[in-house]
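To whoever is on call:

I kicked off a structure prediction for a single chain this morning and the downstream step that reads the tokens threw a length-mismatch warning. I double-checked the sequence; it's 360 residues and nothing unusual in it as far as I can see. Pasting both halves so you can look.
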Amino acid sequence: MTFINPRFFKPLKAFYRSAEARSRKHLVSENELIHRHEEFSRISGQFIFILSMAASIGALGLMADSTVTIVGAMLIAPLMRPIVAIAFGLVKSDLELKLHGLSTLTIGVLLSIAIGFLIETMLGLESLTGEILARTQPNLIDLGVAIAAGVAVAVAVTREDVADALPGVAIAVALVPPLCVAGICLSLNEWSLALGAMLLFAINLVAIIFSAALVYLMSGYGSWRLSVSSLSVVAVILALMAWPLSTALLTIKLDDRAQVVVVDWLNDPYFSEASVSSNDLDEVSVTLFDEHVRIDIKLRSPIDTVTEVQLAQLNARLSEQLERAVHLVVEVELIQQFSIGDSAYDIEERDRLDRNPGRL
């Protein structure tokens, strides 16, 4: 029993092959492609060394909150190689190639997680940076990026004239960074965040295998008849992963809408003479439930200037804009301000008089 009918892909296959027919001279020969993927699937000392350096750079970049450093790690990481080898083994029904690719990938995954864990343990930094947190909440956007990356890497591997695109693909899709995040979070006992990072990696892995396999098949490599069952299983796994990702994307959209509504509410003329404004907004977070959403708002203010009437108005606005029942929780943190010594104006004025004692 198969889940995908090969006829479903026939129009797409025909379109792709018609385009390929015009420039087939740029395609790599099947024997060359088999040899290339056999090399991709093998574990080696060079693979271990380069991946270790990439994971170390990635973990340090994540902890330093440095995007540039993380991009450098993504550029040199060789983890894409065994993944596309698995995809090619799938379309060729080559069990040995798939097993070699899977074993190399497994070693790479465990090594990357271990390096993230060890670096965090040695440095003992307990704060979670923005770059770390950004890789713990995957959504449908990440799935779309991974699918596009799988197509791009398969095209780059099969065509000599676009091989230069591989570094860009490595930057676009996250493979090593989420594994490093998982190791860092495990070291900090942040199990839920580690699970989110592993989910991001799993999404990228399955999406790349699926889309790369399709490109290989549509390019004339492998057999649709022999690979359709395996491809169906991968497609089902991808569909099962997409469900929680759609919920995560919806939460992000609701969070953005809520943020806009709250800022507009704080900029209301009612607050123009008060001690609270949109600058005092600390956080807006949305939690999605089956029948309602919970919105938590944190404000900082020297005095408690928010009334129940204003909160009721805000709740009504949020319910209208989000088109859902809203459970609103507002936390106002009362702050105290102290000033000791001369103000900056007094200091500047005194310096002016010292420089010009005869002028007032």
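Update from on-call: the warning came from a stale cache, not from the record. Cleared it. Sanity check on the structure: The radius of gyration is 27 Å.
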